[in-house]
Amino acid sequence: MNFEAFILGCGGMMPLPYRHLTSVLLRREGDIFLFDCGEGTQVSLRRLNLRWKKINAVFISHTHADHVTGLPGLLMLSSQVDREDPLYIFGPPKTAEYVNANRKILDMYINYDIIVKEINPAVPDCVFSGEDFDVYSFPLKHTKVCVGYSFVEHSRPGAFNPEKALEMKVPCGPLWSMLQRGESVEASDGTTVTPGQVLGLPRRGRKFSYVTDSAPLPSIAEEVKGADLFICEGMFEQELAETAFEKKHMTAAQAAEIAKTAGVKKMGLIHYSPRYTDSDLKKLLDEARAVFPESVLTKDRMVFPIEYED
């Protein structure tokens, strides 16, 4: 099952000609999930030719302008096509007020259901679930109420052992598929064969975590623990650690410390201060890699495949 993260915008505070404001899209087979919706989100969606009308849910970290100003346009754009499924929007308090005020002031024509669910920003919680995944929110510390998110797949059945199945007199064919789906079957000698007899140990699903606009809380590492891809703000270089502290942001090195402690596989830095040109960003990358070597700089329209561990 394909699982990919698309960086729609990597900038913070103000858009630049080559850097839209923060937004990340997850595509998992036919499902699409959006994390924040900064200014320029629609442009990247179009340039990547992504099927934006299939977005299942939007997860807002907080209601600062550089994370939500792309949302009204996205809502109106979605009315230009036939859409039967509702669009879910999750976020901390003020999210519903922001959405409703824009719908009213802009007199939006909306031909589909928009369901806004405000979450408790003070405690970790499961806020959205699908057939085989869950999305969790967790508290961050910023100048405005803010949350991070983790998208976590359920464990998969263990690897199927065909030799074992044949040994237990289960012929190749539909019965094998049933065992792999977790169903018991009747072997050719009349005995019952359970999935546990022919499957290995359960295999972990994949995990994506998203953190932006926060001071470096110790609790973040536990929430993003083991993530296959950790997208985290690295707004400043270490020389500006005091500025980061005052603004309740992180340096790239502080983000890397979280990644190291959490044992993530890869960290993508995002939400850079506009003071840094693209060439300046190497300072942030060097400082992050000195702590956590599997750090990369995200750039607009970059794609990260999220692979199974095995």
Textual characterization of the structure:
The protein has 310 residues and is α/β, with parallel strands linked by helices. It contains ten helices and 16 strands. The strands form three sheets. The protein has a seven-stranded mixed sheet with strand order 6-5-4-3-2-1-16, covered by helices on one side. A seven-stranded mixed sheet has the order 7-8-9-12-13-14-15, covered by helices on one side. Strands 10-11 form a two-stranded antiparallel sheet. A hairpin with a 2-residue loop joins strand 2 and strand 3. It is globular, with a radius of gyration of 22 Å. It starts with a strand and ends in a 5-residue tail after the last strand.
What does this entry show, briefly?
The chain has 310 residues and is an alpha/beta fold. The chain is 25% helix and 25% strand. Helix 9 packs parallel to helix 10.
